[in-house]
Amino acid sequence: MNRVIKSVLSALLAVVMVQNAAADTTKSEDDWQFKLAPLFLWGMNINGTTAIGPEILPLDIEFDDVLSNMSGVLTFHFEARKRDLSLFAEYQCANLSPGAKFPNGSGADVDFKNTMMELGVAYRLVQFRKTDLEILGGTRYVDQEIEVKVKSIPSISSLSHDEDWWDAFVGGRVTAEINDKWDFIGRTDYGFGGSNGTWNLVGMFDYRFRDWGSVFFGYKWMDFDY
After folding, report:
1. Contact 93, 72 (CB under 8 A)
2. In this predicted model, what pLDDT tens digit does every residue of 180-195 receive, in sequence order?
3. How wide is the angle at C-alpha 122 spanned by C-alphas 120 and 124, nearest 5°?
4. pTM (whole model) above 0.90
5. How far apart (Å, rounded) are the C-alpha atoms in residues 136 and 86?
6. Cα separation of 140 and 90, whole Å?
7. Range of the structural domain that residue 168 is part of
8. Which of 103, 110, 136, 155 has its CA 20 to 30 A from that of 182?
9. Residue 169: beta bridge partners?
10. pLDDT tens digits, 191-226
11. Distance, CA of 140 to CA of 194 (rounded, Å)
């Protein structure tokens, strides 16, 4: 089974991201400040193809199909900041089990698991009024597993394939305070190494409902060329 992954996980729509911030307003910038998002969910559009012999199986899952096809999800985001330096880590694992059809009309059950881990560092270059501009860089690990069970071909009960790779990434992030409750966070980065190139673009709004917590929502677009 050959797999072509092009623009997989493109057009991701963020549903809700909850952030618990162990931030104390009495602390100075010389103290470490921590943020933890213990569970968040990106609603996904997945586009790609899998080839089984001469047949091409499209893997196209729209946003409204994801929740009905999702069989498991585990995510977290952690960030530590001191003065101009920030360290961050993120883990995302989503398991989808959609049905699919070949062009000849035969059906198949697909089990698709996508895992991403990210470690990075950001440094604030500019602080202008209530806007911070940072450069960032790090490494990202991606593992994609797929299993296809063909219903109408008795000789093929199940086929599976697994690909994983490491990318380095560089980019930038901007954080702008809109008012006492709202912030805008924008990020863009480009990954390279194990893949032929990965573009990541994020725009989010952060609403602080308490000193210790806030809610994120926004839009994420990620394109893998592998």
Report:
1. yes
2. 999 999 999 999 999 9
3. 180
4. no
5. 9
6. 9
7. 2-225
8. 136
9. 138, 191
10. 999 999 999 999 999 888 887 788 888 888 888 887
11. 10
Phi-psi region at 105: left, alpha or beta (left = phi > 0; alpha = psi -120 to 50) = left
CATH code for the domain of 153: 2.40.128
- Residue whose pair of structure tokens reads 């991606």 in the numeric block: 142
The CB-side HSE value for 217 (13 A sphere, CA atoms) comes to: 5
State the residue for tokens 């960030």.
Answer: 79
Measured CA to CA, the distance from residue 192 to residue 128 in angstroms comes to 31
Work out whether strand 55-61 and strand 70-82 pair parallel, antiparallel, or are unpaired: unpaired
Q: Which structure tokens are listed for 90?
A: 């993120």
How many C-beta neighbours within 10 Å does residue 218 have? 18
Single-letter code of the amino acid located at 184: F
The DSSP code for 67 is H
| Coil vs helix vs strand at 164 | strand
* C-beta of residue 31 within 8 angstroms of C-beta of residue 82: yes
Q: Are β-strands 70-82 and 85-96 bridged in parallel, bridged antiparallel, or unpaired? A: antiparallel
